[in-house]
Amino acid sequence: MAFLRVTSPHAHTVQDTASVMRLVLYATIPGIIALTWFFGFGTLVNIVWAGFIALVCEAAILKLRGLPVGFYLKDYSALVTATLLAIALPPYAPWWVVLVGVAFAIIIVKHLYGGMGHNPFNPAMAAYVVLLISFPVQMTSWAAPLHTLVEHPLPPGPLEAISINFGLLRDGVDAITMATPLDILKQNKSLMMEDLWLANPQFGLVGGRGWEWANLAFLAGGVFLLARRVFTWHAPVAFLLTLALMAGFGYDSGSSQSGGSPLFHLFTGATMFGAFFIVTDPVTSAVSNRGRLVYGAMIGLLVYIIRAWGNYPDAVAFAVLLGNFAAPFIDYYTQPRTYGHG
């Protein structure tokens, strides 16, 4: 009788890096459709432009490092980074903002640390924070949602979006931008929540108009990834549950300082996008299931703290980077016991 002798590990999967990355790209489609429907074609322009820059930067750095360009480009990791950053950026961000952000994500955050699998911080979120600190005006010019504009009741079409993004049409940019619901809530000092809701067309049923549908779409994409076992439920559920609990504790049914209801925090801003597409990054998050629970809960807590008392209305990027920094510490204290030890 012949025995098959192989070395550990013995767990096998049909999903390689490229297939996982493709699934992540597929899962973003519902959210991208929702963003396009409510805010126009700017996000699609960002994604195409960012993807092109990412592939060029990736190929150039791989060539300089003497690595096989075709082999690494086919894993889709550069396109995933570019897509996630493009989704996080304002829909009509200038072309040079996208260029700087994607180049920083690929060259500095990813390859400076050794390439995919070695970066300690999420490339898309690190680039987002650098852009937000460096170019606050461009990074806070968010598009107004559908039907909230008097002079421009519909979002810009494809050609108009390209003209805006690439600086060919800048005069009308201010006319299609508004403060986000989180911005309005941050700046509010006197109005009750009910009055604030009535006075600002940016608010929808439970969250921001358009934002709540985009969050539902990213939630659907996240459920798809969970069903395909791309990641486990621990980090996103811990993140969302902690954020909802903190918002519930801080909400006093509508005063000017209540900070919004749990539903408002869950369905406004980048909450669902962060929970299922950023917090679940396998390279920069905790490793064990218990560690992922701690990791997700920590980020949810930080998101609420920064939203409620920090200087930035949405805090997912900052919270994720702090979580990335703490991930090795979390892993050290939550690692599973070695087999055979009580």
Report on the architecture of this protein.
By secondary structure, the chain is mainly α. The protein folds into two domains: 16-177, no CATH class; 179-334, no CATH class. The protein contains 17 helices and no strands. The chain starts with 16 loop residues before the first helix and ends in an 8-residue tail after the last helix. The model has no long low-confidence stretch (mean pLDDT 85).
Q: Specify the helix fraction band.
A: 55-70%
How many domains, as an integer? Answer: 2
Largest sheet: none
Quaternary structure annotation = single chain
- Radius of gyration, rounded? 21 Å
Number of DSSP helical runs: 17
Instruction: State the total count of DSSP E strands.
Output: 0
Overall, the morphology is globular
Distance between the termini: 37 Å
How would you classify the helix and strand content by structural class? mainly alpha
Report the mean per-residue pLDDT as an integer: 85
Which H/E pattern describes the elements?
HHHHHHHHHHHHHHHHH
Question: Uncertain regions: pLDDT < 50 for 5+ in a row?
Answer: none
Question: Summarize this, please?
Answer:
The chain is mainly α. Helix content is 60%, strand content 0%. It has two domains: 16-177, no CATH class; 179-334, no CATH class.
